TrEMBL record:
Keyword field: Methyltransferase, Transferase
Tree of life domain: Bacteria
GO molecular function, one term: methyltransferase activity
GO BP, one annotated term: methylation
Listed InterPro entries: Put_MTase_LIC12133 (IPR027612)
Protein name: Putative methyltransferase, LIC12133 family
């Protein structure tokens, strides 16, 4: 199927036209640059994050405490095993929303018996809202990255594709020198050209859209290796919306700092 070329104002009618042609999906159009995608997005604000807060936070106590994500659980367990004298483990959850991942891992954290500091770095509006709430012990929200060398584990879950300078953001996170880094749900393309698209806001499901970049897999992995990390494991996750962009991979990476004997994934 040939992709539609979009050269005029990204109207609601056009969104519906593409969705009718391609079926129900999240990705509705491609553009030559991030700026073009952002200019044709109907919503490029912190509104979605605040919506997540209002919609999900009253339900947080009902979230299952048993996460199916082995990569995050493994990284936390390995970091705790390396602690001495009951020293706390520090986890950076970059773009972690309202802290759902913390609540998914709370049983594991409790059973490990290690004091924890789970820091969510998020947008200012969301951080301000969350800091008004009586948060669980060990969960904090901030707008800035912590100093290098202070985080044992860094979690980046479905975030980097929403940042214009994806490689710079990844580089900054890796320069924090955490022992373990988990990058989840990140779309990457094998070609030598990034794909810039507009994505339907499936959280609010109100027709609003946001810009997104599918980064080059080769450059993404070069950034990882150049920062002294080994790709201990990586795999492609299933993604339902491949009707339009069937040429990208939805990737998860488990990274370890100075981990000898592991080669980057092919």
């Amino acid at each position: 199927m040939q992709r539609p070329h979009v050269s005029h104002i990204f109207s609601q009618d056009l969104i519906y036209w593409i969705k009718r042609k391609l079926g129900k999906g999240d990705y509705v159009a491609s553009f030559p640059t991030w700026k073009d995608a952002a200019d044709h997005s109907t919503s490029y604000t912190t509104d979605t994050a605040l919506y997540l807060d209002k919609f999900f936070y009253p339900k947080l106590n009902h979230i299952s405490s048993c996460s199916q994500d082995w990569s995050v659980a493994t990284a936390i367990s390995l970091a705790c095993r390396g602690k001495e004298n009951n020293a706390p483990v520090s986890i950076l959850d970059f773009g972690g929303g309202v802290g759902v991942r913390f609540l998914e891992m709370r049983t594991l954290l409790t059973n490990l018996g290690i004091p924890k500091l789970w820091r969510v770095v998020e947008l200012p509006d969301l951080v301000a809202r969350m800091n008004e709430i009586d948060l669980p012990e060990g969960l904090v929200f901030d707008t800035e990255l912590p100093p290098a060398g202070t985080s044992d584990v860094v979690i980046v879950d479905g975030v980097l594709q929403y940042i214009e300078n994806t490689y710079d953001a990844l580089d900054a996170l890796l320069k924090l020198s955490a022992k373990y880094v988990v990058v989840r749900r990140t779309p990457l393309v094998a070609s030598e050209t990034e794909i810039f698209i507009v994505q339907r806001n499936s959280i609010k499901n109100d027709g609003t859209t946001v810009p997104l970049v599918i980064a080059k897999k080769s450059k993404f992995e070069e950034t990882i290796v150049s920062n002294g990390y080994a790709i201990v494991n990586c795999f492609e996750q299933e993604h339902a919306d491949k009707t339009y962009f069937s040429d990208f991979q939805y990737m998860t990476y488990f990274l370890a700092k100075d981990h000898e004997g592991c080669e980057p994934a092919a």
